[in-house]
């Protein structure tokens, strides 16, 4: 794949290559600041009328073996045998007859030349010709395809994407061998020139959404894209919402599944995290493993996940609200036990809760960055000191520690990291509301969150579908999972085109 | 007293944020209506905060409709 | 302001929750006071009569297919008179919105959290309403769709938990109430349950995508709402007894307080309260939204959204002054509101309907509007 930036017209400097080889080389060295990883190999070919050639590449980005075997070797070996090579046609000669590398193109501008060598390709310049030849010699040095680090499953493929975009598209193509799997590429980022590829299955994905994705990508105007998260920020529907409307995953099987559903994938060179749009609330509720196990088990686990996440969101607030305002709701023995625990604690419930939650968040963040050698030791210290000692010192009550621990574990129930972060943050306002207004405050907070979720769209599809607006047909894969033989249709609001999966199912009516 | 001042401050902040936005949209009517409503609302709430006795509009409705009600009830006696 | 569309299913759900509104909390008390243990009969008759009302509203709405109620006022009665009736209607909805906010405040303060000022509850609740009004009808309809299953779930749980405490003697003897008291009960019931359904004409037919299904939806929503209310009244009488029900301000809450499952799950009435907070939210939103959008339409302001904030502030203030105490509120709702609402939710639509039909006939006589007459007949297949 050779992709070149459109040559930007810079009136100050002539962008066209010169016919004089030495002049070209001088300009190139100057523009690149005489960086010492630029390899310029000059050779002479031809016996009767020697022509000067320069072979330019960047060390590390280009594949040295390919260059020496397929380019230099071929050029030096064969051309010596020719007796008379006409001056005007040597360019074509070299290009058509001697290079054994695939993917050869001509260029005429400096900017395209830089773009080419910075992508790892090799440029051949001939003296006397204002043209260069680009050969594709990209290095295949790449991190190996290993297990995903953030989304592991018990049953299912163990591949994960790597940082090279070509490997990633290949991994997806291996899963979906349909000629309808199309790739559209873009280069985004003025300075980083990052390759971005948009993949979708033509005929299943909605054309509107594909066009919208490409339009939004083209509107991005920034100097650098380092990770897919940058792009996520630019193409999201609602910039102010904390809820993610773009799904991302490290796993090819997950992405392939989403593509089959009619969604669009966005791959960014340099990161193994591939984006998927449109992303609905239910996408974050599901894990790839759900589809590899028995449907009843998956349904129960999904319900458990949802319940756990709700708990992670409201458990501290409920504790604060009930112990402060609504003590009558607890059964009497439990009330007495909690009261006795809280007796020594000098703070009101909400301060206690805030202290514990903040302490836990600090621990969690610190734990992420800790060097692996001290990590386990510090976490033990954290649990013992902060948890146990705090209770013994009477700073917090034991119930609070339990709730914080429960909340923490539950917040990891969601397979998608983005949404659980949001839940983490939303806990705190809910706690404050609970402290001020009891359960009414909690209801208020939840109502605001629900209203907010109802108003968000992801690329035109309402975020909470298929719950609201209610699409009965899609309930089979939303909250609970139906057996595979019943999953006959694709999500209705994501694509209206190709609703029915497969053509081997009999008696399938295309329900509207 | 504090509540009344709080209401006033909130009203001023709202006015400062929204009126320029509305002015940009060139809808004079909207600006006028917005300001009038904001003034009424602020005055009303400040009055409540200062424990001024403001009669309920429903009393006016009651006043208007009580004769009708009595008339209808007399039918059913 | 782009046209927002809601589906007929969403419309049905909104109708259902809207018709329950505040009725779920105060109706049992007010109608049991008059009809005693036959209150449920009064309610049932009321629900049946409400269906006639729905037909009236639908017929009127179909006269002006693409306009909502406020615009229809102006179209049918002409610019001057139409504006006057529309303004009176909006005064009614605005005051009702304030009343409902007062209601939430006084309910929470009396029964749940006595130390919090009512202003706090009104403030929080109005923030939700304002936010929903800002986000628009579509979002609101979706939020109603989400609240609906929770509501049903809690309601069924409620019925099942309270049923063991039924004593059938409480509902006997049957049919003891006098005709007058029945009449009063039915009127009061309908004035809170079905008269305000007119406000739903702000949504239909302008914002609904499938008209036929939406019409059915209006009926179904009303019937279901009625069923819920009748069930609640019956349960109140059966469990608490007619005198108790009439004496309390919020008998449903008292019912919820009595739930005790296995001596473990007790005093969970605040979860039941979620149910009526939802229905009040729907109704308050409709009143508030109608007022804001109506005002914008009368004044020919294009975008109604800037008006939300100042009107919200006024409504908060209204909620504090509209009733000085609960006695005033009960008195108003029992005596004055039926008449006030009757004029603007029954007489006004009838007037509009008559004028519209006359106008249609006149233009039909001029051989101009024959196609419209036929479509009108089509739409009337309810």
From TrEMBL, chain A:
The chain crosses the membrane at residues 306-325, 397-418, 430-453. Keywords: Membrane, Transmembrane, Transmembrane helix. It is a multi-pass membrane protein. It comes from the Bacteria. It is found in: Cell membrane; Membrane. Pfam families: GerA. Its main location: membrane. The keyword Aminoacyl-tRNA synthetase does not apply. The keyword Transmembrane applies. PANTHER family: LEUCINE ZIPPER PROTEIN 4, SPORE GERMINATION PROTEIN. Belongs to the GerABKA family. This is Spore gernimation protein KA. It comes from Lysinibacillus boronitolerans JCM 21713 = 10a = NBRC 103108.
Automatic annotation (TrEMBL), chain B:
Keywords: Membrane, Transmembrane, Transmembrane helix. The keyword Transmembrane helix applies. The keyword Transmembrane applies. The chain crosses the membrane at residues 6-23, 30-50. This is Histidine kinase.
UniProtKB/TrEMBL annotation, chain C:
It is found in: Membrane. It is a multi-pass membrane protein. InterPro entries: Spore_GerAB (IPR004761). It holds the Pfam family Spore_permease. Its main location: membrane. Keywords: Germination, Membrane, Transmembrane, Transmembrane helix, Transport. The chain crosses the membrane at residues 12-33, 39-60, 80-107, 119-137, 146-166, 186-206, 218-240, 270-295, 307-324, 336-358. It comes from the Bacteria. Belongs to the amino acid-polyamine-organocation (APC) superfamily. Spore germination protein (SGP) (TC 2.A.3.9) family. PANTHER family: SPORE GERMINATION PROTEIN A2. This is Uncharacterized protein.
